[in-house]
Amino acid sequence: MEMSNPYNQDLDKNPANYVPLSPLSFLERTAVTHPHLTSVIYNEQRFTWEQTYLRCKQFASALHQLGVGEGDTVSTMLPNIPAMYEAHFAIPMTGAVLNTLNTRLNAQSLAFMLDHCDCKVLLVDTEFADLIEQTVALLQVATPVIIDVEDSYHAGGRLIGQYEYETFIASGDDQFHWQLPNDEWNAIALSYTSGTTGNPKGVVTHHRGAYLAAMSNVLAAQMPAHAVYLWTLPLFHCNGWCFPWALALIAGTNVCLRRVDVNVILEQIRLHRVTYYCGAPIVHSMIADAPDSLREGINHTVHGLIAGAPPPTSVFTRMEHIGFNLTHVYGLTETYGPAVGCAKQPEWADLSVAERVARNSRQGVRYHLQQDVAVLHPKTLQPVPWDGSTLGEIMFRGNLVMKGYLKNPSATAAAFKNGWFHSGDLAVVDPDGYMRIRDRAKDVIISGGENIASLEIEEAILLHPAVSSVAVVAMKDDKWGEVPAAFVELRPQAPAVSTEELHQHCAQHLARYKLPKKYIFGELARTSTGKVQKFVLREQLHEK
Amino acid sequence: MEMSNPYNQDLDKNPANYVPLSPLSFLERTAVTHPHLTSVIYNEQRFTWEQTYLRCKQFASALHQLGVGEGDTVSTMLPNIPAMYEAHFAIPMTGAVLNTLNTRLNAQSLAFMLDHCDCKVLLVDTEFADLIEQTVALLQVATPVIIDVEDSYHAGGRLIGQYEYETFIASGDDQFHWQLPNDEWNAIALSYTSGTTGNPKGVVTHHRGAYLAAMSNVLAAQMPAHAVYLWTLPLFHCNGWCFPWALALIAGTNVCLRRVDVNVILEQIRLHRVTYYCGAPIVHSMIADAPDSLREGINHTVHGLIAGAPPPTSVFTRMEHIGFNLTHVYGLTETYGPAVGCAKQPEWADLSVAERVARNSRQGVRYHLQQDVAVLHPKTLQPVPWDGSTLGEIMFRGNLVMKGYLKNPSATAAAFKNGWFHSGDLAVVDPDGYMRIRDRAKDVIISGGENIASLEIEEAILLHPAVSSVAVVAMKDDKWGEVPAAFVELRPQAPAVSTEELHQHCAQHLARYKLPKKYIFGELARTSTGKVQKFVLREQLHEK
User: In this structure, is residue B464 part of a structural domain?
Assistant: First the structure.
């Protein structure tokens, strides 16, 4: 039957009509078509697209000379500086996989990740020299080659590696003949996610997905050619939601930002006429709350993508008032960052601010290039009615879904059960088909844009000898969105433990941003079968 | 080696993370996310995206009931009316291939095509009833099922088929469970191109390419969400350059247009605030040349894509003056329509009109999603220097290149020789990397946006007993861009033949638009080996 289909005969793929999809192609095209436009700005540094491409080829060539290639992992411990942008191209150009480490993690977590991914080369900003030295001391598998990245705009820090970044890339060939992946399904990046249980999981994404996610961002954000984009979102967060590649596609300008500081943000927006940026609610809140004087001279429309913990209605309202245009998006590391967006219906423009904000602050609808996003009954997989009240689990299906978890087939199989990627987030669907998240995956706390697994905090607290049970839940916080709050049951015969003592204990085991902001001692609410009822704890928390 | 790569282990494709790329997905998404926005306008008719999707599902279901499926061809003989838009989705939804016939062809050409593609079902606008009856009488392979499409805005015409379109689709199920292709390489469309030699070739395109071409159009045209697009370009021309699918992607509005009439065009632009349209230079010329009164009330910016014969500098200049924003694009049926575009550099905005037009009227650079377009020495395949004067052949490589020619492996192999698709068009590259076509593929005449193969005209003329040799070349024409001009050598002993007699002879064999507009009798310029030198003939023509 198949054989008799004339449309499949003598019409095969060949080098002229088939090329694997890869976002690396975007950089090459833009370097050729817009060589003199500005690619990257960082304080007084400026690069053109031609320069960025040449530097990336040099960087890739130097890595290649080190023996880096397909199947290898190159990790970064970098803030949003030009080297981090270049890493998003140069590392995959060698065939290797880019692993961006969260710079806020502690040595234990980092060591787990570097061991798990067999990190071969590690780029380290000098700010993190001490932390990485501690990390390396903990490694059990292999010690990576370390390349120090010196940032002339950052004082302090030390050189701890075998190479210095600029010297290293200068040793490479700017005419290096890099290759596209031979298969678009090849891995491009590895991002560790702090799941709700156990060790971090390594989300593996591929070239095809990164290509399509970048494009889908352009459509969702309605980014025109040559948009100027400010890097408020950490590039280490699911590859900056794939925006590094989107900016290369549209020949835009990347304005780097070492740390989130509202004065600097608004200065950069004014100075470079920034039109786009992304971030957690806290970034947008800072901008909205800044004194008017800081926003003086910004007379153009600035567009922001916002994703994060609870539907930040207040942020939307404030941003409307100062004329910033926010679009709500939603996704997970497993979906290349955002894969749902609150697409604005033209008729919303005529609503009152309050009505419009109510619509805009929802998670929304599937991204243009995500095949399907649905809110399904977790067991039956039937779609919930569009009634704004029936809870279901958000599930994804399509090309903006990861390959799976590295070296973790059971977690991969669980995530993809029944042909859907299970987000673990619970939502309702409004009558117009727009999703609203009602409950985050039970155990994740999203603080300042960072996912914190409550389990990790619980495990740390349980190390204290006086503690018998613990449950950590998210507590609303004006600044951070959410912060952890710990409900603690002490052992009956144990000596009294003070909040201060428990906090000191936690500080020995957890990164600072994961520390609970509140400790409540007492018996935990449980079901008849003894399971802790976190939703009751949350209610207790907010009643107080 | 491959086996030891952890990024390829237990990380396979599955239904949750891999979906074949197909532009059909765009329609489904937009029907769900923007159900009430207007999809199609035709005079007083209006459809929403929800309605269009339901109608397409019904249409696909009805075709499925007829037995249409994978490997089958469904042809259309339709102007730019809603049924033609729907055909771009409904036919591929069945797994079948859409073959859009050029409504300006004659019965002989049409019969060749319908036989060649084993057309199973043919949609016919009543205007073409007579022509299709003649065509069907010539068929040698199989007679297709004919579905008449009645257009209430067109008087005249007859019903000749077994079904009437609205009744036919009403017989289908609007909840039809259509399937995406199981392979994105599956054919989506078949378009016959009038090549320079012999019979028309059937260009086969696939779902993956149509998906990427649609997206690449959005990027090249900078079409925002919900753009309003006027169908001045025939949908039968390489599927309207893939814009039907692009409009579904951005949830835009299609304004249908039965025939190109400048009064109607400007009326529709004003009435529906049309912001985008495409076409051959003649369409844009008409708009530019229209009396100012016809453009009254059009106060918004209208963006046009222009492709066609000679670099139409004058059209660009006139359009600048009336405030229409033109972008030059270039491509072939084999490249899904445009795959090169004259991307505007921001600094051009500061140039004088003449300088800007000189830059804008070039063919330009590769499309965002076309991997590579280069001007190469036809033999050595080395890139020509970017000197604005060295001629080479434009060649394409990437995902916006056809599968090949249907049932024509030798033509397919020739087109893809050495890993490039050979356009046959000769160009130079300016120092900024922008291509300029200097000579069309030797034998093609582009008249009012239609490709006319000179060989076909030559063959018709040679049927006249008095003619011994003939060469047809393009002659510049203010209205049509180019028209055919015939250089004719008569047999030495033959009786004299008048221009009028030869023209009558041609009219019996050729479609009206292919008829030469000038006949020059005399000896043909030839090389020493006897080959006709067309470039000399062209010079003679323009000296006269």
Answer: yes
pLDDT beyond 90 at B392: no
Residue where a domain stops, chosen among A170, A186, A206: A206
Alpha-carbon distances of A118 from A122, A128, A132, A198, B6, rounded to whole Å: 11, 20, 16, 19, 10
Digit-coded pLDDT (tens) for B148-163: 999 999 988 899 999 9
Residue A16: which of B25, B190, B397 has the nearest Cβ? B397
Which CATH number belongs to the domain containing residue B138 in this structure?
Answer: 3.40.50.980
* B226 in reach of chain A (CB within 8 A): yes
Q: Let me know how many helices (H) and strands (E) chain A has, helices first.
A: 18, 26
Whether A185 and chain B come into contact, CB under 8 Å, resolves to yes
Report the distance separating Cα A517 and Cα A481, nearest Å.
Answer: 13
This complex has an ipTM of: 0.86
A141–chain B Cβ distance below 8 A for any pair: no
**B532: domain CATH number?**
3.30.300.30
Provide the pLDDT for residue B51: 98
Q: Which of A191, A206, A221 is the last residue of a domain?
A: A206
Work out the angle between the directed axes of helices A454-462 and A499-509 (0-180°, nearest 10): 110
**E strands within A333-449?**
337-341, 365-366, 372-376, 392-397, 404-405, 421-429, 435-439, 444-447
Q: Which helix (H) or strand (E) holds A470?
A: strand A467-477
**Residue B49 belongs to some domain of the structure:** yes
Q: In whole angstroms, what is the distance from residue B33 CA to residue B45 CA?
A: 22
CB contact under 8 A, B416 and A16: yes
Region B495-499 average pLDDT: 89
pTM score > 0.80 for this model?
yes
Query: Could you tell me the residue range of the domain that residue A149 belongs to?
Result: 19-206
Task: Provide the sign of the torsion angle of the four alpha carbons A426, A427, A428, A432, taken in this order.
Answer: negative
What tokens were used for B210?
């149509």
The answer to whether A61 touches A172, Cβ cutoff 8 Å, is yes
Interface of A with B in 237-256 (CB under 8 A): 249-250
- Asked if A405 contacts A413 with a C-beta cutoff of 8 angstroms, the reply is no
Q: Is residue B499 in a domain?
A: yes
Q: CA A120 → CA A64, A79, A187, A237, distances in Å?
A: 12, 20, 16, 21
Range picked from A35-44, A475-484, A503-512, B512-521 for highest mean pLDDT? A35-44
Find the residue in B nearest to A365 (Cα): B33
Contact A466, A433 (CB under 8 A): no
Number of compact structural domains in chain A: 2
Eight-state DSSP code of residue A161: S
Mutate to test the interface with A, among B17, B365, B403, B432 (most CBs of A within 10 A): B17
Residue B484 placed within a domain: yes
